[in-house]
Amino acid sequence: TTVQTHDIRKRFLDHFIRAGHTEVPSASLILDDPNLMFVNAGMVPFKPYFLGQQTPPYSRATSVQKCVRTLDIDEVGVTTRHNTFFQMAGNFSFGDYFKREAITFAWTLLTNSVEDGGYGIDPQKLWPTVYLDDDEAEAIWRDEIGVPAERIQRRGMKDNYWSMGVPGPCGPCSEIFYDRGPEYGKEGGPEADEDRYIEIWNLVFMQNERGEGGGKDNYEILGPLPKQNIDTGMGIERVACLLQGVDNVYETDLLKPIIDLASELTGRGYGRGAHDDDVRFRVIADHARTAALLICDGVLPGNDGRGYVLRRLLRRVVRSVRLLTSASEAAGVTPRAASEPTMGALIGRVIDMMAPSYPELEERREQIVSTAVGEETSFSKTLAAGSKLFTDAATATKAAERSTISGDDAFTLHDTYGFPIDLTLEMAAEAGLTVDQHGFTALMAEQKSRAKADATARKTGHTDLSVYRDLLDRGPTEFTGFGELVSEARVL
Ligand code: ATP
Ligand code: MG
Ligand code: MG
Ligand code: MG
């Protein structure tokens, strides 16, 4: 029998409780932090302690934190290891233990036998990395843990140096990767191939103080901190994927049942060699789960900020279901999803799977389901309305003996009917047409700069406070603006 995700979570907490850590429950995905759209790492709720703004009531803590990373949205279903919602297990030391203990704790949990409370991973499959000049961490891995020197790689600032992006604590990291074997890629350690060597755990050694300066790696390091801290994050879904011997995180025990249900409803098979179908199934499972967890923590579908992310996720589920359904119909099968809504069933299955670890999902089951179903209903209307305009545009294009749907039409579909551009692209392809994407992008950009000018006008006029609220909702840290805006049409 393989280890279930709930058990992986519990083993983690038990391991660190035995080692004197206080268990801290997961915080909500929504914290009152203007810099952050969603909690995206286990350390976020502990920030005030690391920044020295508050004194922690314990010197060692452990948690399994709900995380959402919208920046990974395009990776979902395409790589084997990225969820938009995932659970980050962590152990934290506030001025207590440092590198030696952090490395030893991680190693023993990963490699101890299942009988001894560990995960029973073969030590030969594990590859640690250290920061370029971190001889101390390297020596611990090599001389105390006994990892052969050739399996320890040194990496630069981008991968192995951490800060919060603002003046405050910073320091080198040591990450642990698992070798999935030659069928997953080329040899040579994580430096050579991060699909074959899967990152499972990041150990952050907060030992220095960061000064001013921009970005992830363009800042001054002022000197050592008076007190050193530890922050670690292990991905529960990734460990589940490896221990359960499945190909990707979407096929682990808490997500595969959602894929199975989607397969039943849409009449398409999963894992039968149709790559596009499989990606859609993985998107459905991942996004339905993230949506349920977000609604549970108080997010409602909306047109900006967090609400917009939720809307995008739910719409992507609806669209993926529809595309799978059409594929079935094209093959002569009429599945249930052709005549019934599916969101309620999918979200219900998510709650069944996740409630044992997050009982609040059960408590709010009805509200979560009805919110998601409401979005499904309204988006289905949008799709129905837009489809008529699309057909008219396609017919007109062909009648004029052209093969390209104009940027104007694509923009109207998007702007007036909320019609996602990738749907326009796909339907155009089905009709043997292309879309003037440059024209579309130009019109989108024009609209954005108009909106921005409006917002600035309102801001300087000090009349409309909603502008400030809007900016706060977005927050600079995750809503990095450009990337998100550029990808929003594609992602919808
Ligand atoms: P990657 O390089 O694979 O994108 P990362 O370096 O961005 O991962 P960290 O920020 O170091 O990840 O987060 C700590 C741990 O959380 C990772 O080692 C991984 O196990 C897990 N993790 C990070 N992002 C995801 C995700 N999108 N889905 C599932 N697990 C994740
Ligand atoms: Mg990442
Ligand atoms: Mg990484
Ligand atoms: Mg990392």
Automatic annotation (TrEMBL):
GO cellular component terms, A-Z: cytosol
What's the chief localization of this chain? cytoplasm
Record's keyword annotation contains Ribosomal protein = no
Cofactor needs? Zn(2+)
Q: Which GO terms describe its biological process?
A: alanyl-tRNA aminoacylation
Give the EC number(s) listed in the UniProt record: 6.1.1.7
* Top EC category: ligase
* Residues of the Alanyl-transfer RNA synthetases family profile domain: 3-492
The protein's superkingdom reads Bacteria
**Which Gene Ontology MF annotations are present?**
alanine-tRNA ligase activity; aminoacyl-tRNA deacylase activity; ATP binding; tRNA binding; zinc ion binding
* Record key words, sorted: Aminoacyl-tRNA synthetase, ATP-binding, Coiled coil, Cytoplasm, Ligase, Metal-binding, Nucleotide-binding, Protein biosynthesis, RNA-binding, tRNA-binding, Zinc
Q: Where in the cell is it found?
A: Cytoplasm
Details of cofactor binding: Binds 1 zinc ion per subunit.
The keyword NAD is assigned to this record = no
Catalysed reaction(s)? tRNA(Ala) + L-alanine + ATP = L-alanyl-tRNA(Ala) + AMP + diphosphate
Q: What does this protein do?
A: Catalyzes the attachment of alanine to tRNA(Ala) in a two-step reaction: alanine is first activated by ATP to form Ala-AMP and then transferred to the acceptor end of tRNA(Ala). Also edits incorrectly charged Ser-tRNA(Ala) and Gly-tRNA(Ala) via its editing domain.
* Notes concerning its domains: Consists of three domains; the N-terminal catalytic domain, the editing domain and the C-terminal C-Ala domain. The editing domain removes incorrectly charged amino acids, while the C-Ala domain, along with tRNA(Ala), serves as a bridge to cooperatively bring together the editing and aminoacylation centers thus stimulating deacylation of misacylated tRNAs.
Q: Which family does it belong to?
A: Belongs to the class-II aminoacyl-tRNA synthetase family.
Any idea what this protein is called? Alanine--tRNA ligase
Name its species. Gordonia amarae NBRC 15530
The gene name reads alaS
Measured against the full-length protein, the chain present covers 40 to 531 of 940
